[in-house]
Amino acid sequence: MKHYREKTAVILAALALAVLPGCGSGKTENLDQGMALVEQLEYEEALKSFDAAVINGEDSQLAYRGMGLAYMGLSQYDSAVSSLQRALSYSDERPDQMDYDINYYLATAYYKQGNLDGAKGVYESIIALRPREKNAYYLKGVIELVQGDTEAASADFDTAVSIDPQDYDLRIDIFCSCAENGQQELGQGYLQTVLDDEDSKLSDYNRGRMNYYLGNYDTARNALESAMDTDSSSEVVSLLGQTYEQLGDYNYAASVYNNYLSQTPDAQIYNQLGLCDLRIGDYEAALTAFQSGIVMEGNQIMQMLRFNEIVAYEYLGQFDQARLKMEEYLALYPDDSKAQREYEFLQTR
Questions:
Q1: What is the distance between the alpha carbons of residues 180 and 6, in angstroms, rounded to a whole number?
Q2: HEC profile of the chain
Q3: CA–CA separation, 12 vs 5, rounded Å?
Q4: 161 φ, ψ to 5°?
């Protein structure tokens, strides 16, 4: 079983650029507090700060944008849509980067509602304004995959890649999206093309990860080992370790992670080490790894780490603790359907 990249689906929905003036005053006290609370997942408190920002005459567009993000965190997508549309009502006639930013968030809210046609329409609107917006082509293609229109999706992926042929992250995103929607063969082509070109400038890391996602693990390992000679970043270490896991050498994979962590604490590597320890059957070590990642402030995979911590407690047979942690988790991430099903299971133990 291949391990595809964990990524957040960012889908646009409705491009509603109203021609109304902004009314910001330059004050940002409540806005800053609200955004800090969003980052801390304190969404209810964040909403109070954004309401205060509007009342106190702070930038209305940013305030309603913040409300939209908070409502999304609460899985209240109707309210998120209303707030984000309100934010767009403060746009100038010529859209700027903030308008596109808000529309990306608005799209996510619409996508969560299942409004795929609306999302697709937004991509088309953005492409009309920015014909070389590769992310819009890619995300439009993702929607078409979900809708079962593989031909249209392929055309949009082709366009996205043609805009920036050496954006290997984009190619991997396309592959993962295809694989997740039952079109793995389509996605493989975007990676295989890179290898078939035999570009001498292709780095060992990129050669390694193309082969990893294609399932060529021996070749990937060799390339990534070579990459380690000049680049011992967490990205290289993580993928090298995962390659050894795919080859069945979990103990060596764990040593790769541990060697890196002994010098540089990193939440992503702690998470990967924990997953590796779970496969080995060392559940105490896995729990320690996940918790070591959780205490690292500002990491971008907190949700993943918190869920995996619960899994470790389950493997240890500590179901009361797992249930308690799951209640805390669902308070933070209420729309995680997998976690909701797991909570139902925990309530029976």
A1: 11
A2: CCCCCCCCCCCCCCCCCCCCCCCCCCCCHHHHHHHHHHHCCCHHHHHHHHHHHHHCCCCHHHHHHHHHHHHHHCCCHHHHHHHHHHHHCCCCCCCCHHHHHHHHHHHHHHHHHCCHHHHHHHHHHHHHHCCCCHHHHHHHHHHHHHCCCHHHHHHHHHHHHHHCCCCHHHHHHHHHHHHHCCCHHHHHHHHHHHHHCCCCCCCHHHHHHHHHHHCCHHHHHHHHHHHCCCCCCHHHHHHHHHHHHHCCCHHHHHHHHHHHHCCCCCHHHHHHHHHHHHHHCCHHHHHHHHHHHHCCCCCCCHHHHHHHHHHHHHHCCCHHHHHHHHHHHHHHCCCCHHHHHHHHHHCCC
A3: 21
A4: -70, -35
* Mean pLDDT within 181-204: 93
List the end-to-end C-alpha distance of the chain, in Å, as a whole number: 29
pLDDT confidence of 347, banded at 50, 70, 90? Answer: confident
Structure tokens at 305: 């780490």
CB neighbour burial string for 242-260, b if at least 16 within 10 angstroms, e if fewer: bbbbbeeebeebbebbeeb
Report the chain's mean pLDDT, rounded to a whole number.
90
Which residue is associated with the tokens 């080992």? 225
The token duo for 200 is 């001498």
Segment 11-43, tens digit of pLDDT: 333 333 333 333 444 689 999 999 999 988 899
199-213: pLDDT as tens digits:
878 999 999 999 999
